[in-house]
Amino acid sequence: MEWIHPMPKIELHAHLNGSIRDSTLLELARVLGEKGVIVLSDVEDVIQKNDRSLAEVFKMFDLIHVITTDHQTVTRITREVVEDFALENVVYLELRTTPKRNDSIGMSKRSYMEAVIKGLRTINEVDVEFCTATNSRKLHNTCDGAGRKKIYIRLLLSIDRRETTESAMETVPRIGNVGVVGIDLSGNPLVGEWSTFLPALQFAKDNDLYITLHCGEVPNPKEIQAMLDFKPHRVGHACFFKDQDWEKLKSFRIPVEICLSSNIITKSISSIDIHHFADLYKAKHPLIICTDDFGVFSTSLSNEYSLAVRSFGLGKRETFALAKSAIEATFAEDEVKQQLGLIFDSASPEYV
Ligand code: 5GP
């Protein structure tokens, strides 16, 4: 399946800190280990473990955050994550991250986001197009020349389910915030109540931001129904949906971000052959193949497509059509959607 890597791809569900390279995580952990801030072997154990429950994944995020939450590191990992996606021919990326406040190092949610944006500015391996939803200000877009990869980036800000209503409100940007097109709700699904986050999500929606929700990662029928009634623009995972949830999702045509490896590794879905990808695909419901956390789950978007091809018997042409169909589910401006259409059209002779 060597044709998957060069195929243009769109990534809509990628968490910044979950997409950190193992090599970077280890390098940073060694430095903190020498300073006695962490125990290096803890990090090594965590990286080597390739089978972890959802609860263990969240413990791992706490460890990653201890290692990565300073401005310089946030800038570095943003640059690396974008470069990694672009090098495997991801042409449009919606990167999500939880703005963090850490008074002890002078970090506010705003300065965290400035560090992310600085990361985008410092990318020079690939060309980056990054702008706001309302004005097309390019950070840099040096050339379309031969051999250079080009990637469009838009940002989603995540609200962590551990946050209060007030803190969630602080995450929602006021109009005109650079490059932010939407808000995500994520974090440990066993923590927090939907009603806590609703004011911030409603405020975001009222201010023309797009909304995507981690929905149905654990069996919580009441919350799933409430989330669907909110009519988010996309949902992620949808592992524990019942018939009435599928009915509602389908009647509202809410696209689903599908993260195969993540769902299997965390045992949210017991086996790939019963994954809801198959039903949704057959029903021609909008779905997008995504990585979730390519560092934590040791995957890549090409790998996720290969897994779908192998598990559900997709052909080359169908896979290409699936990848292209993600354009409609992006939170990008119409002009960018048109450009993405052209990129896919020019690649299409290879995939007929
Ligand atoms: P960050 O927002 O710090 O850049 O990325 C890591 C965070 O994303 C985690 O702490 C967690 O809140 C969220 N996250 C990453 N993967 C998952 C997932 O599979 N499910 C949920 N609910 N949240 C996730």
TrEMBL record:
One Gene Ontology biological process: inosine biosynthetic process
GO molecular function: adenosine deaminase activity; metal ion binding
Domain Adenosine deaminase: 8-340
InterPro entries documented for this protein: A_deaminase_dom, Ado/ade_deaminase, Metal_Hydrolase
UniProt keyword list: Hydrolase, Metal-binding, Nucleotide metabolism, Zinc
Keyword Lyase in annotation: no
Catalyzed reactions: N(6)-methyl-AMP + H2O + H(+) = IMP + methylamine
Domain of life per record: Eukaryota
Family assignment from sequence similarity: Belongs to the metallo-dependent hydrolases superfamily. Adenosine and AMP deaminases family.
The protein, known as: Adenosine deaminase domain-containing protein
